[in-house]
Amino acid sequence: MNKKQKKMLTRIIISAVLLILVNIIPIDKIPLPEMILFIGKLVIYIVIYIIIGHDILRKAGKGILNRRIFDENFLMAVATVGAFILAIIEKSGDYNEAIAVMLFYQIGELFQSYAVGKSRKNISALMDIRPDYANIEKDGVLEKLDPDEVTAGTIIVVQPGEKVPIDGVVTEGTSSLNTAALTGESVPRDVKAGDEIISGCINLNGVLKIRTTKAFGESTVSKILELVENSSSNKSKSENFISKFARIYTPIVCYLALALLVIPPIFNVLLLHASADFTTWLYRSLTFLVVSCPCALVISIPLTFFAAIGGASREGILVKGSNYLETLSKTGYVVFDKTGTLTHGVFKVNGIHSSCDKCGEFCGCEHEHNEEDAKRILEYAALAEIASSHPISNSLKVAYGKMLDRNRVTDIEEISGHGILAKVDGIPVAVGNARLMEREGYEYKKCTHPGTIVHIAIDGKYEGHILISDVIKENSGKAIKELRNAGIIRNIMLTGDDRVIAEHTATEIKIDEFHAELLPADKVSRVEELLSGKESGRTLAFVGDGINDAPVLTRADVGIAMGAMGSDAAIEAADVVLMDDDPVNVPRAIKIAKRALKIVYENIGFALLIKIGCLILAAVGLANMWLAIFADVGVMVLCVLNAMRALIKIDKKS
């Protein structure tokens, strides 16, 4: 509880205690003149009223001066001051209702303030990832610089307990990182030399030296903070509706309350020739005003979206605004990019196929192949690719796993789109695709397994091929299953890979539909087709990570980007960012959005139903001020408590 909330709670307790005491102590029996007792009692109640309601009166006064009269503060001020005046006119001495209305209203405000604070904590936890400095080592001494002053390519030092200020690659040291504020995961991530590292993580133990790959303004932490800070500016249709509704609704009920005060007494006098009964209609009018206060809707609807965005951010799902949350809740179609989204985008050697001594087959037979041949093929391929930085080349070097001696390799010639020709230990080696084999005149063997095939010929003879595949993410299949269970009509995969590889991935994760061998423009065309043919009232979400996905992310109803290793262009274009690149967070984000909208509709229905019913009862005199308190503050508290459900974490096992 913050300082402001503590002050409000103190005021509520003092006012409640004084109100109880003034009703327990028999003031009327004090042997003083009746007028002095009347004035004294009134002064005591006014003091209690000012303690509990001075801020509301001040806000109402400012609203009148600024010509923004019709708001909840004005309604509460008029209703409670009117109740005081009514008690004075009737000389009843009962000012409890006026104070009780203000007291319970402030209790409701305290609930609302606490709820906002609770959801804001999840977002402020993200704000804590902002680094204060970056360490630069100069002459053996660490110098603290503003992260904005550090350029890309600089070596920075991160000590235990410090935040990683800028994205980069570890050049020296090993450690564990706390990534909870970024991904929502509590398990630390181990890093070593060569690993990529994103800003915003907390270094837990070892000292790390990091070569920065971006300037601070382009780093992950800056992007996240920018997304979070701007998220509240994009309002949903529900929020905009409630804001417009409140602006129209409030003056209407004020005029209706005035009509309730004036028209019935005039009707009684002119047509019925009866008493005007002004005080009765004044009481009903004041009760009508208290009932009509739209606090439950004005407070609970934005609070629900705010809480949902805060709860999602705690799970590593950043939503750029409540309008995107509303669109996400209506998702009927989810379109995935493959590489880097459903797969890790990291190539791995999955097989080395040399000629079988028994049947001559290169893959697919049941015989055991010569392991020495496989090792020799991998060694020569890795050495030939020694100067290349291509992901496929890197996967060959990683699979070989030993130090490569550059002195063994000469005459390296890289043929674009084909592969590499080189001499290893003076022996000619050709490593590349089928086009390279055809170009060099080698009779190669096709591989029956899905993946990227690297053929190799050594000393003029075709020796075999190496199967390299992108690794499917562990949760990709689970994500598709959960999306289906969440009511998604179709899950579709779009990829630039060849059909065999795409079909293998689609079969493994059991996706409904896939389209392969697509250029970036083809992906946009496919999404356009899906958008034109989708069911009315359902939206399409696209999930991607690469620069080439940016146009599709923008075109989809809602774009979801992988934030940890995704490109800056994809993150900029997306409406939702998944900080841990886990595809299972796609159905989780949809569940969070659906729950938020369900809560919004529950609150709108419940609040309007109770309001309309109590307004009718107040107009015909069947509702007193106490029922008005329930209709206003009670409904607001119930709606706020319901809105807080949006903060509850979605079960990751569900």
Number of helices: 20
* Mean pLDDT, all residues: 81
Q: How are strands sequenced across the largest beta sheet? A: 10-22-21-20-11-18-19
How many angstroms separate the termini? 32 Å
The helix fraction, in percent, is: 40-55%
Textual characterization of the structure:
- It is built from 20 helices and 22 strands.
- The protein is an alpha+beta fold and 654 residues long.
- It folds into 4 domains: 3-124 and 233-306 and 595-647, no CATH class; 151-214, Calcium-transporting ATPase, cytoplasmic transduction domain A, CATH 2.70.150; 322-342 and 473-574, Rossmann fold; 345-471, Calcium-transporting ATPase, cytoplasmic domain N.
- The two termini are 32 Å apart.
Question: Features of this protein?
Answer:
six-stranded antiparallel sheet, Calcium-transporting ATPase, cytoplasmic transduction domain A, 654 residues, alpha+beta, 20 helices, 4 domains, 18% strand, seven-stranded mixed sheet, Rossmann fold
